[in-house]
Structure formats: C-alpha cells, structure tokens
Amino acid sequence: MTKQRYFTLIIVLGSLTALGPFSIDMYLPGFPAIAKSLHTTTENVALSLSSFFIGISAGQLLYGPLLDRFGRKRPLYFGLSLYIIASIGCYFSGSIQTLIIMRFIQAIGSCAAAVASMAMVRDLFPVKDSAKVFALLILVLGASPLIAPTVGGYVTEAFGWQLIFIILAVISVLISLAVIFVLPESYPPDPSYSLAPGPIINSFLTVLKTPQFYTYAFCGALAFSGLFAYISASPIVFMEVFKVSAKTYGWIFAILSIGFIGSSQVNSFLVKKYKSEQIVKTVLMVMVGIAVVFLTGSLQGWLGLVGTIVMIFGILCCVGLISPNTSALALAPFEKNAGTASSLLGASQMAIGSMVSVGVSLFKSKSAVPMAAIIIVSSAMALVLLFIGTRFIKTKVAAKQGGGVAAH
Description:
Blueprint: H1 3-25, H2 31-37, H3 42-70, H4 73-91, H5 96-124, H6 130-141, H7 143-159, H8 162-181, H9 197-208, H10 211-241, H11 246-270, H12 276-300, H13 305-331, H14 338-363, H15 369-389, E1 397-400, E2 404-407
Antiparallel strand pairs: 1-2
Helix pairs in contact: 1-5, 1-6, 1-7, 1-8, 2-3, 3-4, 3-5, 3-14, 4-5, 4-8, 5-14, 6-11, 6-13, 7-11, 10-13, 10-14, 10-15, 11-13, 12-13, 12-15
C-alpha cells in the first residue's frame, strides 16, 4: 500500500469514526439555547444526549451482523442515509420529546459509520499495525472536539441552534461521497452468514466468551466512560456553574480535547517500547489517582475553573492512552467475525456511556461532583476487571515494534 493510499484511507475512516462525536460535540454549546427555545431545562436537553448514546449502543449490535452478511459498504450507505434524514428531523423539532427521538434515530444512522470503520481497520491493515492505525484514527477524530464545539458555539449565537443539524447533514453527505468514490469494499458479502436470531446470538456469544475480548473491551469501555461523564456534565459545569459563554465553552472544550488527542498520539511512541497491556494497567492506576484528587477537590470546594480544567485534562489524557490499546487488544483475535466483534466493542462503550450520561442528568447537581464521582467509580471498576480478566487469557498479546499487537 502506497503512503498516499494509506493516508487517504485513514482520512476517510477517521471521518466515519468522527461522525458520531461530531454529532455530540457540535450541539453541546447550544444546550441553554435549546432549553430556552423548547421551554425546558438543560437537564432535560441532556437526555437528548443520553438518547443518542443509547441509539449508538443498540444500533451497533444491529450493524455488526449486517456488515458480516452484506459486506461493509451497503449497511454503511443505509446508515448514512438514515443519519441525514434524522438530522433534518432534529432541525424541525418543536419539542424536547421530538428532539430526543430524532437524536436516537440519528444515532442509529451514525453508528453504522463507527462500526464499519473499526471493522475495515481489521480488514485493510495487518494486525501488527492495528494499535497504530487506531491512534491515527483518533488523530482525525480529534478534529471533532477541537472544531465542533467552537463552531457550534458561534453558530448557536449567530444563527440559532437549529442550523447545527443542517451542517451535520451536509457533513454526512460529503462523507457519503467519499465512501462511494474512495473507500473500497474491504469484505465481500457472505451469503453463508445467517441473519437468523439463533446464529447471530451464537456469533455474539462466541466473541463475548473470548477472554481477551471481554477483558479489554469492558475495561476500555469503563475507562472510556470518563469521557462520557465529562461530555454530559460539562455544559452544566462550565456554562451554569462557572457562567462561561457558549463561545468560551467551545474554546475550553477544544483545549481540553488536546489532552485526549495528544495522548493518543504519544501512545504510538509508547507501544514501540512497552507492551500494550503494560500501558493500559499503568495508565489506569494513574487515572484512578487523578479521579480521587478530582472528587476530593470538588467536594471540598478547592477547585475553581482552572483547577477543574486541569483535573479533566488529566483524565482525558489517560483515556486517550488507554483507548487505542484496549481496542486493538480486544479485536486482535478476530478475522471472519470482525464486524460482530467491533459492534460489540462499540456497543459496550456506548451502553456504559449512556448509563453514565443518564446518571449525570439524574444527579441534577450544579457542580462537578457527579462527574468526578462517576469517573472514580468507573476507572476503579476498570482496574479491577483488568486484574481479574487477564488471568483467564491463555494466549498472551504483546505489542510489536511499530505499534501493533500480535498473539504469541
């Protein structure tokens, strides 16, 4: 594969991966405006974020088998089309209930892009390069938190929150064109793959019973939920507690995202010297320590705006280091059913993320305490799962030179 071809594939796959996060990040600065426009509260607006997470979680279980049965591109076309329709529906939403439903449908569409991109990484690149490729995808993914909330803040203040969803629809159209003309079909349709409930359930169970998968998939999902806790609580913490404007919130969100993006790229260098398992274990312990300080400082009132930003920055750095490694390690054992495995991986992240998002909304606390409390619980659970789960992995997985993983 030429360098130009490699670069092009990373950009397109990264854009697919970023569609869901873009759909989240761009409308976050509009929470107060949406609440005012739809005559509701910001906590209720946050439920439209929760419904998005739930939709992605459920949709990924749907698309996994479809990607293995019909190839990667046909289900992807369906998902992108559904996303465009739902985005227009969000634009015309006249009540919070309608927005919540439209966001759920929009998520069902966007998760086709997320699942397909992860499966295609497994299709198009050798296993030894997977962690490196995932880190590069996160670099492209980084355009979302750097650009989307800032643009969303300016668009909301200048034109109203509804226009955000038209912009998202246009972005999806452009991605669809790239998929049609640039992205190859990386996995031919498999007529032998049954879509009957029994075989599908058996396929999911086969993946779930693999110790390497369930250890790193759920460990990574629990750690990744720290990002969801931050995303769900940050509009309330920054715009209502610290009283920053929508524009300022967008810039804070962009600055904090540098931690997540930068650390994921640092990981590309770390995996050349250390095993992926070592990185995950060490960083998880650091994440628990930061979460303890964050919760204590929030409860005692020691953290102002700057202190809160510093704590969140540290958490996001940890998530950025953990995520590429747990994703690569979880998917490494699979070839034929990579679509099913990637859908379960994504579903586990989004299922836990949706519970975290709902949990933040239920707290109804005008402080950073719910965010910090959820992060400390989830990261501690991830660490415990890691120590227990690795004992059941008979085939060890080690990092190879170049950032990949391989069984030996």
